[in-house]
Amino acid sequence: MTKYVCTVCGYVYDEAEGAPDAGVAAGTVWADVPEDFVCPLCGVGKDMFEEQA
């Protein structure tokens, strides 16, 4: 599974863990995360995340 990092605050979305507090179940791949998802820490949109190398 892949991780995606918020380029604003550094929050890491881990596909294996999901974001349960934001309503995204564990195992949810980034492509299936809703387009209206916002960073739980700073509130920026999904477009501000980059795949972690």
TrEMBL record:
Fe cation binds at C6, C9, C39, C42. Its cofactor is Fe(3+). Residues 1-52 form the Rubredoxin-like domain. GO terms for molecular function: electron transfer activity; iron ion binding. Keywords: Electron transport, Iron, Metal-binding, Transport. InterPro entries: Rubredoxin, Rubredoxin-like_dom, Rubredoxin_dom, Rubredoxin_ET. Binds 1 Fe(3+) ion per subunit. GO terms for biological process: alkane catabolic process. CDD domains: rubredoxin (cd00730). Transmembrane segments: none annotated. Belongs to the rubredoxin family. This is Rubredoxin. It comes from Neobittarella massiliensis (ex Bilen et al. 2018). The lineage of its organism: Bacteria, Bacillati, Bacillota, Clostridia, Eubacteriales.
